[in-house]
Design brief:
The complex is a heterodimer of chains A (274) and B (259). Chain A is built from ten helices and twelve strands. By secondary structure, chain A is α/β, with parallel strands linked by helices. Chain A folds into three domains: 148 residues, P-loop containing nucleotide triphosphate hydrolases (Rossmann fold), CATH 3.40.50.300; 63 residues, no CATH class; 54 residues. In chain A, the strands form three sheets. In chain A, strands 5-6-7-3-8-9 form a six-stranded mixed beta sheet, sandwiched between helices. Chain A has a three-stranded antiparallel beta sheet with strand order 2-1-4, covered by helices on one side. The longest helix of chain A has 13 residues. Chain A is globular, with a radius of gyration of 22 Å. The mean pLDDT of chain A is 89. Chain B has one domain. In chain B, α1 packs across α5 and α4 crosses α5. By secondary structure, chain B is mostly helical. Chain B is 78% helix and 0% strand. The chains are: A alpha/beta (274), B mainly alpha (259).
Chain lengths: 274, 259
Amino acid sequence: MDTVISVRGLRMSYGERQVLRGLDLDLRRGETVALLGPNGAGKTTTIEILQGLRTRAAGDVEVLGEDPARGADAWRARLGTVLQDWHDHPRWQVRTLLDHVAAHYPAPWDTDELLRTLGLEGHATARVRELSGGQRRRLDVGLGIVGRPELLFLDEPTTGFDPEARREFHELIESLDITILLTTHDLAEAERLADRVAVLLDGRIAIFGTPKEVAAAVQAPSLVRWRDGCERTDDPSGLAWRLHQRYGGPVPELEIRRPTLEESYLNLVERSAA
Amino acid sequence: MNTMALGIRRGLIEQNSILRDRKELGTNIAGLVMYLMLILWIGRNPAGGGVDMTGFMTVGFVAFTVFSAGVMTLPMLIAADREEGALLRLRMLPRGVPVYITGRTVSLTLHIAVHSALMLAIGGAIGGVALPSSLYGWATLIWVLGLGALSVIPLGAMIGVMLPTAKAAAAAVGLPTMLLMIASGVMIPMTMMPAPVQWIAQIFPLYWQGHGLRAAFFDSPGGELHKTWELGTAAMVMGAWAAAGMVLAPWLLRRVTRK
């Protein structure tokens, strides 16, 4: 019962092009998992299959204990989704839209409470198209969670955000206590929000673990910088020791930077492309 | 809330938010002003069969309202709903698809009812256009409006799902709709058209929508193309369009939305 998403050997192709070739993925209840991968790696396809919007070619998929391809309304009521680029219902008032979407669910949030949580209580009677980009995205999150879902899909949620809107969004997501599957191109975002990170390459999960585990497994080089030079190395400690001997004492302006998730990720993608 | 009630509420909210939209309101008022200017300008001229142009054009505008709601307004709304993401959002909500379809049906029916009522009210106040006086006339009015709407709504839904954007929908259906409006005898009496135009126009439901409504409002068929009321033919042509649309539209919808 603690597994929310279970995927085994998922395959999908568009015509001749194989997009997914044996993808395995597990999400435990309550965790946030970031699905990373280059454009065209099949992230959106994977999410659409998990939501039951797309029919898979092969593989076993269970989401909240059911096969998404056969998911009925009762199952759909336990999911929430926030996609990129939604501009729908521009003429509706914010509160009216939240009320209407809430009425589709058996046990939704109270609209006033949700408006407060989203920081939109001052915009309840505004038309949706009058909201700023950041407010609109917070409304999208509200529409995604209004039905109190057990599982939330976030597809590249902060594309085009300014830094302040991004931070507000991150704080909102961190305050939710539900299982989240997130796709993003922003590696800092993945590192901040995700308990575990899955990297999708060539239609398979190339690596799946905590951001630290991913960095360790990929062994991206660390950057060592000092007054007279700069070097990338897999053995920063050894290099520092040799420098120490060369200078016959402390190394001037020594700086060692371990790889971030971004560097580990780029390293992995480059290796797979080679 | 049950699905039907939720769909009806959706339709009411949709129509209400369109009515409050300044741009939409402007377009609607512009249409009414055009109608008003036309009846003030040429309303006293005879249209044949003892009917003046005010009566003829009032009924014609109602017919065109039904037709354009189906083949122009509906495709643009559907294309916009897809472009903006409303269709995808509704697909992911429990009961979202039936609620959407019910909502669109309700909002389109309200659109037709409000426009028709406004034009009949203006025509009545300014040009003395009288509502049907007999029960038979009212029955004709109701079935012609209903079947006329059914003949164009599935067609409009198909156009809406095939065209990528609301702009593309407006561009694709705008000109053909205007040509049909001129050719179908709803603004200009059909007897004034050359024979080939008359034949082509009789293939489309708009001519029969207008003909059926005139049968509901006016006594004498003297101004009609064949000098007689042809309600059987009207029912057959509009019925054929409705039946073809209702068979083809679900098939096309499945093809387009399947992934």
